[in-house]
Design goal:
This protein has one helix and 44 strands. The chain is mainly beta and 426 residues long. The protein has a four-stranded mixed beta sheet with strand order 3-1-8-5, with no helix packed on it. The protein has a four-stranded antiparallel beta sheet with strand order 2-4-7-6, with no helix packed on it. A four-stranded mixed beta sheet has the order 11-9-16-13, with no helix packed on it. It is rod-shaped. 24% of the residues are buried.
Length: 426
């Protein structure tokens, strides 16, 4: 090949090459001498462009940029170059001058929707926009008298009443459910004497019946509910609770039943003399004191019991009862004693009681007269001797003497038997 031919071929190849390059732009086939412009890309944090250096494009041409966000971010493209973003490809053009392509990246946001059931709320209670990879915190608040059963969704965990989602990577929902509380009704008795038992546990709004069972001989003395006296609300040993919304502490106290022992007495006294209050199973002592001239006769009434000396002791008391002690009048013996020459006889045959004043007839024998009558503090009126009020055994004694007869000269004693004349009876 000649040198001339080589030169021609080289020149031709250069022209073809320049034509194919289009002056470095995207508008191939542009005539030689077309203007060339710079398209300058830029990117914010969390992504990049490819290419990331300025690109030369001929007037009217186009070029492509790959927009690459970091995972979890989404891209938007601005700048002075015209263009469209489809997927991750940004097509620039047609180019009419130097311009810029500016890519910015922002976190992807997802919607977290709270869903609370009845009887409680989730705060916040509206759908929340959350950046990709970020957790979201919700406060779970049950209604009055309710508790949290469960909280689920968005891969979260519950600590107390705070629910924290896992890092959010998509739309999700948080659900909470609630149940009515259960309340304990605690019952107990202080000391001995009985028991109290209540239905427990109780669901919110429910009721409980507390049954009170005293031991034999005991009765309910006091009942409190959370420290408040409710004794007056007990009916037939049942205390009822309704519409329960808190726990209850029921405390019962018992005491021995109290009964009245009523004493009575005739012709004497029982001490104490008024109605006595006696606890179940206990006894009561009374001192019996007869009136003057009376003695304890018998014990009656439905208290039972025994008499020892002057002390009357009831049987163990199990109900209201009466105790009665009766006293009978004491009878006294009044003996009579008559000396020679007469007799002493009672004016009537009847018991002689305290303070009575029996009478006695003093009768001298024929030829005799009464010398004296004494005893029992009495007095003689005519031939009737009346004692003083009798307070004890005593004797009425009468003495007689022969009657002395007299004449004008000689006083003679009339003998009534030979010995009175000094003769010896044989």
């Amino acid at each position: 090949m000649t040198e001339t031919l080589k030169m021609v071929l080289s020149a031709f190849s250069l022209v073809v090459l320049l034509t194919a390059c289009g002056g470095g732009g995207g508008g191939g086939g542009a005539p030689e001498g077309s203007a060339v412009f710079s398209v300058t890309p830029s990117a914010s944090a969390n992504g990049n462009t490819s290419p990331d250096k300025p690109v030369q494009v001929t007037a009217g041409g186009t070029t492509l940029f790959r927009i690459n966000p970091t995972p979890g971010f989404v891209a938007s493209v601005g700048g002075t170059c015209p263009g469209t973003l489809i997927g991750s490809t940004y097509t620039v053009g047609p180019i009419t001058g130097d311009c810029t392509v500016s890519a910015s990246f922002s976190p992807i946001t997802y919607t977290v929707t709270p869903l609370s059931g009845q009887n409680g709320i989730i705060k916040p209670n509206t759908p929340q926009s959350v950046f990709n990879g970020s957790p979201k915190i919700f406060e779970i608040t049950p209604g009055s008298g309710y508790s949290i059963i469960s909280v689920s969704g968005c891969g979260g965990t519950l600590a107390g009443n705070i629910f924290t989602t896992a890092p959010i990577t998509g739309n999700c929902a948080v659900s909470a459910s609630f149940s009515p509380n259960q309340y304990n009704v605690v019952s107990r008795a202080t000391g001995s004497g009985g028991q109290v038992s209540c239905q427990t546990p109780v669901t919110l709004g429910g009721g409980s019946a507390c049954t009170i069972v005293p031991d034999a001989g005991y009765q309910l003395f006091a009942l409190s509910d959370n420290g408040v006296n409710v004794f007056g609300q007990v009916s037939s040993n049942i205390y009822s609770l309704s519409s329960i919304s808190v726990g209850h502490d029921i405390v019962a106290a018992f005491m021995l039943k109290q009964f009245s022992v009523v004493p009575s007495a005739t012709n004497g006294t029982l001490s104490p003399s008024t109605s006595q209050t006696v606890s179940y199973g206990f006894t009561k002592d009374f001192v019996a004191t007869p009136n003057n001239g009376y003695a304890i006769s018998a014990v009656s009434g439905n208290c039972g019991g025994t008499l020892s000396g002057s002390t009357y002791t009831t049987a163990p008391v199990t109900s209201d009862c009466t105790s009665s002690v009766s006293f009978s009048p004491i009878t006294y013996a009044v003996a009579t004693s008559a000396g020679t020459g007469g007799s002493v006889t009672a004016t009537s045959q009847q018991p002689i009681y305290y303070n009575s004043t029996p009478g006695y007839t003093i009768t001298p024998a024929s030829g005799y007269s009464v010398i004296s009558v004494s005893g029992c503090g009495g007095t003689l009126s005519g031939n009737i001797f009346t004692t003083a009020p009798i307070t004890g055994n005593c004797t009425v004694s009468a003495g007689f003497t022969p009657i002395q007869y007299s004449t004008g000269i000689l006083s003679l004693s009339v003998a009534t038997k030979p010995s009175d004349l000094g003769f010896l009876e044989v």
